[in-house]
Specification:
Blueprint: H1 3-23, H2 28-39, H3 42-52, E1 69-77, E2 83-91, E3 98-104, H4 112-123, E4 127-132, H5 144-152, H6 156-172, E5 176-185, H7 187-198, E6 205-209, E7 225-231, H8 235-250, E8 255-260, H9 278-295
Parallel strand pairs: 3-4, 3-5, 5-6, 6-7, 7-8
Antiparallel strand pairs: 1-2, 2-4
């Protein structure tokens, strides 16, 4: 086996270890022990982890002070007397009614990367709102391990109710048209799938990126048009996605699903160099924006 092939194999095995650590709430010390054995030493393991994990210091695609967008930290009513906080972005200049997009974060809470994604949607012509679904627990902390732990302790039903309440609020805000879509990544993709089940006709379009799917029996409740993005190497999520797609089609839901061969879970996250895939990300983004523009008219 060549050194290049070995390196690729080690990287892929490390990605699978990291996926298990971040999504199955494994112990960090056990994860680092296994990663060190795989990499052949502590220094190599830390370098490998740096290339796989998201880097908060990575430069944004669209800077926070970009003059083409107007941004603001805001709050609004969630469900069950919750007050949610989050980030909103819209095109700069005269206020014109635009379709709204709820951007749902990964299991690390509302990060600068997700704020960046919200700005990208604003530049594409939408009113974008990125909620912090850790708001009821005190908000997203700086430490990602803490944020993942907090996310894992959220009541899923209560979080979905907060998201559905956000959809209802977005339908009423003065700068929006009343048409609402939702896009989510990883944990956020799972939430978007469940909001599509729970929101009924209030949600017009839903785009989960590599989000674990609900029970296929719930597909008959979905009224939104669905576009689903899956990573070809993401066996964990894809095992739930296949029956979900079949159920959506059987229920007569307008459904488009795409599998991006040879890429990993979180391929859209450009702050994680080891998993990001520009070609797949760009293709999925173009499809997502076109889909939302069509379905939110």
């Amino acid at each position: 086996m060549t050194g290049t092939k070995l390196s690729a194999d080690i990287r892929q095995r490390a990605i699978l270890l990291y996926d298990a650590f971040t999504h199955q709430h494994a112990d960090r010390r056990a994860f680092m022990r296994d990663l060190t054995m795989l990499a052949g030493g502590v220094t190599a393991a830390n370098a490998l982890l740096s290339s796989i994990a998201a880097d908060p210091a990575t430069a944004a695609v669209l800077a926070p002070n970009d003059v083409r967008v107007k941004t603001q930290e805001i709050s609004w009513p969630g469900a069950n007397q919750h007050i949610l906080t989050g980030y909103t972005a819209r095109p700069a200049g005269r206020v014109v009614k635009r379709p709204a997009v709820m951007v749902v974060h990964e299991n690390r809470g509302l990060t600068d990367h997700i704020r960046d994604v919200a700005r990208r949607f604003a530049l594409a012509g939408f009113v974008a709102v990125a909620p912090d679904f850790l708001s009821p627990a005190g908000g997203t902390p700086a430490n990602e391990d803490t944020a993942r732990d907090m996310t894992g302790k959220l009541d899923l039903g209560a979080t979905v109710a907060d998201a559905v309440a956000t959809v209802g609020w977005l339908r009423r805000v003065s700068q929006a048209t009343g048409k609402v879509g939702a896009v989510g990544f990883c944990w956020g993709g799972a939430i978007v799938n469940r909001v599509a089940v729970s929101a009924g006709s209030a949600l017009s379009a839903a785009v989960p990126y590599y989000g674990p799917a609900p029970d296929p029996k719930e597909a008959i409740k979905v009224k939104a048009a669905m576009m689903l993005h899956f990573a070809g190497l993401d066996d964990r999520v894809n095992a739930t996605g296949r029956p979900w797609i079949e159920a959506l089609n059987a229920a007569g839901v307008l459904t488009e699903a795409f599998v991006y061969d040879g890429v990993n879970h979180a391929f859209n996250n450009d702050t994680a160099a080891g998993r990001y895939d520009k070609a797949a990300s760009d293709l999925a983004w173009g499809r997502t924006v076109a889909f939302l523009k069509e379905r939110l008219k």
